Amino acid sequence: MRKSIKAAGTLLLAGLLLTGCAGQSGNPLNNVPESPAETESVQEDIPETMSDAEPDTETEPEETEPPEPVYPAGAELAAGIAALPDSDVLRQNDIADVITAANLDTLPGEVRERLAEALRGCESLTAYRTAFHRITGYTFHAWRDVLAGASAGNHTSTPYTDGIASLVFTGDVCVGDEWYNMQAYHRMGSDIKNNITEDVRNWISGADVALMNCECTISDRGEPTPGKLYTFRGKPENAEIFVQLGVDIVSLANNHAHDYGRDAFLDTMTALEEAGVVYVGAGETLDEAMQYRSFVADGMKIAYVSASNAEKYRLTPGATETSPGILLMYEEENVLTAIDRAAREADVVVAYLHWGTENSTRVNADQQKKRDLFIEHGADVIVGAHPHVLQPWETVNGVPVVYSLGNFWFNMETVDTALADIQVSLTETGVAAECALYACTQSGGVTGFAYEK
Questions:
Q1: Cβ contacts of residue 33 below 8 Å, gap of 6+?
Q2: Tell me, what's the pLDDT at 413?
Q3: What is the pLDDT of residues 377-436, one digit of tens each?
Q4: pLDDT of residue 7
Q5: What would the pLDDT profile of 229-252 be if each residue is shown by its tens digit?
Q6: What's this model's pTM, rounded to 2 decimal places?
Q7: What does the domain layout of the chain look like in residue ranges?
Q8: For residue 367, what pLDDT is reported?
Q9: Considering all CA atoms of the chain, what is the largest pairwise distance in Å, rounded to the nearest integer?
Q10: In degrees, to the nearest 5, what angle opens at C-alpha 156 toward C-alphas 152 and 160?
Q11: pLDDT digit string, tens, across residues 373-385
Q12: Per-residue confidence (pLDDT) for residue 55, from 0 to 100
């Protein structure tokens, strides 16, 4: 990550000026001797320091230490936050376990002071979230994960810099060794730098979080699924290709992740884990496949949910309570449950979906139906794959919806594709997301920008 932590503000303490004064009073001398002799003897007994020295009219002020500043206690701050009303975006129940007196007392006193100042006059919990994010470096949800040591499935964690996170997406990628683009990869030296141009690689690796769709099995085991026209399998070491591209997370919720059976499917998840690449949309059980994966980027918790309903004939198994598979969304209930949970526990929810009609540039009615349901349940960004061609994108109720990014690096054909860069930030009412699509071309086993950058 090319991010840096902004220095926290400092609290200026006023010094106290302490002043004082002292006085003297004397009584008339009694029994003064009458004779000169007696007077001289009395004078001789007077020390020189008292008779000859100049009177001391100045006194040194006493040195005093400035008082220790008094900062708001965690309990006081927690009570103030708890008094803020819920909103449609954020509820007190969602953060009750993190905004505690004990947790807040771990913050430096100066930070607690700034949080207390921001609390004065704040009218909603969602509005205060933005102040908390700016002052501490993390949102409530992200701070919970920081206190716990890490985000779920997270290997990147950056605090607040400018309050904006860059989320990059590509379309379908296949690293199956017998497929055309991988044959070109091996002919060209087995170095992904020869197949994805430098400017594109830099864009991907420079994102806060970059996601690709891994449309194949990664394993040495298994047999092709009977009755399936196209099956893809790559060696376990091919998982390193995603690392070399700077990819943070891949989706396995697609119709090719199970091409070579159960063992190869399990190997795929293992290969990605060992390479340090997070995967989403698949698991050894339904609970695992429904689990969102999250990253803390620019102090915000970004959660990813992925699911598929891409097959006319269902050959890719969905995960169950006792068997591995992908998260299916022919019926939306499980996906809605996953999105609901992510919306409660994260700041930004991304739904990456394998959907639509293959080789069609038109958005179908099922995509539109699911789009509306997922937005209603809390999706802030929706990006799709599977059609293998570009489809339109639009903004619906503030949510960018990219229906299909096409083939990013999938075969030898010359096709148009795109790289989506979605900038997300938090507002006092929710999430702001700005989407930009950058035209790319896949041709002859090489993908690059379609114009000079």
A1: 39, 41, 42
A2: 95
A3: 999 999 999 999 999 999 999 999 999 999 999 999 999 999 999 999 999 989 999 999
A4: 31
A5: 999 999 999 999 999 999 999 999
A6: 0.84
A7: 74-136, 165-449
A8: 98
A9: 140
A10: 105
A11: 999 999 999 999 9
A12: 52
**Listed residue (381, 242, 239) closest to 305, CA to CA:** 381
Centroid of chain to Cα 92: 21
Residue 58's identity, in one-letter code, is E
Question: What would the CATH number be for the domain defined by 165-449?
Answer: 3.60.21.10
- CA trace torsion 322, 328, 331, 332 (10° rounding): 100
